[in-house]
């Protein structure tokens, strides 16, 4: 115990009651502190657990958001691929149309080449003979195989009339002779519903072909499908008359018009040559005849070109 200094006042000792109150207060204070500390620790644990749960939920949300973004990206990719697919299909359809057009054009060109080959062969055969029977046979083959003629006839110019000299698909005696100068046609022809004579006369007088356009199945039976003038230089010497065509011939095509033009020139020279050869009883001109023709041509200031 510390030694007291002189004059130092000494505090009176608390009473037992006060000590008991003080001890009770201290005990209560520390007990409350311990309870408060336990409560703080429990709250801290609860908050830690809540923080862990929130972090887990946040991670899950991040994962879900990333998954949604991936799905949206896939949808955008699918939409892009769909557009690209439509474009490719459009290109394929256009390519198919172009291919079909080219195939059609190729078929047309191939058919035209085939027809031109037939024309070359036919014209070569047409001028390969001077015998009327052979010339008519070649003409018949041309009209039947290339034009599709069912019935036709050849009219040649006589003195004052057109004379049918050959026919196929129609009897020759049934074909009338036709006057060729204006106003000389028979009155029964003028009043007839059959326009054949009128058309043949008009084609011969004008030199302009009459060719039906469009559907040939609707052509009236009282008029031919085509009348083509036969020319030698600028002179019309006859008419090819096509009375009817085969059933499979629906209409005249551009190649038919070219064929008619070729026939108008080549058939005339072939027929006229064959008729002259037949008139000469099959005799070829001799050297004297050739020399005389050459001499007269030289005197006229011309040549035989």
UniProtKB/TrEMBL annotation:
<keyword id="KW-0175">Coiled coil</keyword>
<feature type="domain" description="GAF">
    <location>
        <begin position="127"/>
        <end position="281"/>
    </location>
</feature>
<protein>
    <submittedName>
        <fullName>GAF domain-containing protein</fullName>
    </submittedName>
</protein>
<dbReference type="InterPro" id="IPR003018">
    <property type="entry name" value="GAF"/>
</dbReference>
<dbReference type="InterPro" id="IPR029016">
    <property type="entry name" value="GAF-like_dom_sf"/>
</dbReference>
<dbReference type="Pfam" id="PF13492">
    <property type="entry name" value="GAF_3"/>
</dbReference>
<feature type="coiled-coil region">
    <location>
        <begin position="37"/>
        <end position="112"/>
    </location>
</feature>
């Amino acid at each position: 115990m510390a030694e007291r200094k002189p004059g130092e006042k000494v505090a009176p000792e608390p009473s037992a009651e006060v000590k008991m109150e003080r001890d009770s207060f201290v005990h209560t204070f520390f007990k409350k502190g311990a309870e408060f500390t336990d409560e703080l620790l429990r709250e801290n644990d609860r908050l830690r657990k809540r923080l862990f749960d929130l972090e887990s939920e946040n991670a899950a949300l991040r994962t879900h958001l990333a998954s949604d973004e991936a799905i949206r990206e896939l949808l955008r990719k699918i939409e892009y691929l769909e557009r690209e697919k439509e474009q490719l299909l459009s290109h394929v359809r256009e390519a198919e149309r172009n291919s079909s057009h080219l195939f059609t054009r190729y078929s047309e060109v191939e058919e035209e080449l085939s027809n031109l080959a037939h024309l070359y062969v036919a014209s070569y055969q047409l001028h390969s003979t001077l015998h009327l029977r052979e010339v008519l046979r070649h003409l018949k083959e041309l009209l039947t195989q290339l034009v599709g003629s069912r019935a036709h006839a050849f009219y040649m110019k006589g003195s004052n009339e057109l004379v049918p000299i050959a026919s196929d698909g129609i009897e020759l005696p049934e074909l009338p002779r036709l006057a060729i100068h204006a106003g000389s046609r028979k009155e029964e022809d003028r009043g007839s519903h059959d326009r054949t004579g009128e058309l043949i006369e008009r084609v011969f007088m004008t030199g302009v072909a009459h060719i039906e356009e469009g559907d040939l199945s609707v052509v009236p039976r009282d008029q031919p499908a085509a009348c083509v003038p036969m020319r030698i230089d600028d002179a019309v010497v006859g008419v090819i008359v096509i009375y009817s065509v085969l059933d499979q011939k629906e209409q005249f095509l551009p190649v038919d018009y070219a064929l008619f033009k070729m026939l108008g020139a080549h058939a005339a020279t072939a027929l006229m040559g064959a008729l002259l050869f037949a008139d000469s009883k099959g005799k070829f001109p001799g050297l004297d005849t050739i020399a005389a023709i050459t001499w007269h041509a030289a005197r006229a200031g011309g040549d035989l070109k």
